[in-house]
Amino acid sequence: MNNKPFGFDASSLSQPTVQVFAPSRSVITDMIMVQFISIIITLGIILVLKGDSLSANSVSAYLIGIMGASLILSRIYSNLTR
Length: 82
Hints:
By secondary structure, the protein is mainly alpha-helical. It has helices at about 10-20, 25-50, 55-80. It is built from three helices and no strands. α2 packs antiparallel against α3 (about 55-80).
């Protein structure tokens, strides 16, 4: 008699599901760091490509965004290296 209710081992399906929907802490941290890196790159590209047509207030806002994202990214990285 087969003890498997659906004809297959449910644990073979549940383990990958748990890994996808409950990733480890390092994966979440890596995803957050990638988001901040992409913010820095995007704002930098906007400044390089459209900087001459932006107002001084817009350029200041982009620079503050780059600086803020860099500070948060460096804080996350320093917490990881401890």
